[in-house]
Amino acid sequence: MKMSKKLSFVLVVVSSILMAAGCQSKQSKPVEQVIEPTETKEAVETKKESPKIVLTKSVHDFGEVGPKSVQKADFEFINEGNAALLVKRIQSTCGCSKPTLIKEGKRHKMPLKEPVAFEPGQSGKVEVVYTAGRSKAKVSKNLYVHSNDPITPRAQMVIKAKTIVKVSVTPEKVELRLDQENAGMPELVVKSEDNKEFSIKSASVAGKTITIPIDSTKKATQFVLKPQVNIQKLTKRNAGVIQITTDHPQGGTMMVKYNAKPIYEVSNPRYILQKIEAGKPIFRENLIRSNYGSVAEIESITSRNGYMEIESQQQDGNHIKLKIKITPPDKSSSDRRYITDELKITLKDGHKLTIRCSGWFRLK
Predict the structure, then answer these.
(1) Phi, psi (degrees; rounded to nearest 5) at 105
(2) What average pLDDT does the chain have?
C-alpha cells in the first residue's frame, strides 16, 4: 500500500515536470528568419563600370564675322562616369572647321594615333578653329566627339556664324534670254557699304560665257560694270555664276547667279523607277518644250541600251507631247538589281535633248 502511494506520487511529479516543460516550450518566441534586402535596378546600374561624357555646352555662335576671318571656340567636357572615357576621334563635317583635342594642356591633332583616355572626373577640351567663307552667308556646322560612352557614343557640337561682307553687288540674280540683245544682261552695281574706296581685282565667269571689262587701277566707293554675253556660248552653258573680287579688306567674293532658258527642253529629263518587273513595260509622258517660238521637230531617236523608245508623239503648237515606253530586260543574272538607259533625241535644227531613266527590280 505504501509502495503504491509512493509510485503514484512519483508519477504525479514526473507528469507535472513534463507539463511545465511543454508550457514553457509553447511560450518561447519563434526564431526569426533574416532576409537580405535585394538591390534595386538603379543600384545595380550604378555599380556597372561605364564612362559618361558631358559637354558644358553644345552650341557656339560666333555671331557676325568678316570674310576669310579666323575664329576659335572651346567646347569643354567632363567624364562623369565610373570608367575611363576613351576619345577615339573628333569628326568635322566641313573643312572650314578644324578640331583639336586638349588634355591637361597637351594638344592632340586629328586624326588621333590612338584613343585618348580621360579618367572618371577628369575634364578635357575640344578647340575648334573656324575659317569664314569669302561670301556673305549664314552657316551652321556640326562636329562630333566619338568615344566609348555607351549612351552617347557620338556627342554633337555645333558652331554657327554669319559672314558679313562690306561690299555689295546688285542684282545678285539675273534671268537671261537667248532671243534678246546681249541676252538682256543688266548692268551690275558694285558698292562699298562702309564708304571705303576699293578697286575691283577680278570679274570672271567659267567658260568665258560672259566677259566683264574692268580697270583694276581705279579706286572708288562704287562701280557700274557692263557684262558682255556670248550668246553662242550661253546656248551651250545656260547657267552659271559671275564672281567679283575687290581689294577691300572685308570685300570677300561677290557672286551673281545667272540663268537662261534653253531653246528647247524636256519637262522631265530623268525617270526613277522602283519595283520594276522584267519584260513588263512602263509608260511615261513627257514634253519637248520650245521656249523661243521655234517649232520643235524630231529628226532621230536613239536608245543607249535599248530599253527606252517613243511609243507616240503628238505636235502641240511649237511643242511635242511624247509617250515613252520603258521595257525592263529579262533579269538573267541574279546579281542584277537595277537598270539604266538614255534616250537621245536630235531635232531637225540640230539641237540635242536627253532623257534618262534608272530602275530597280522588285525584290522577291
Answers:
(1) 85, -15
(2) 89
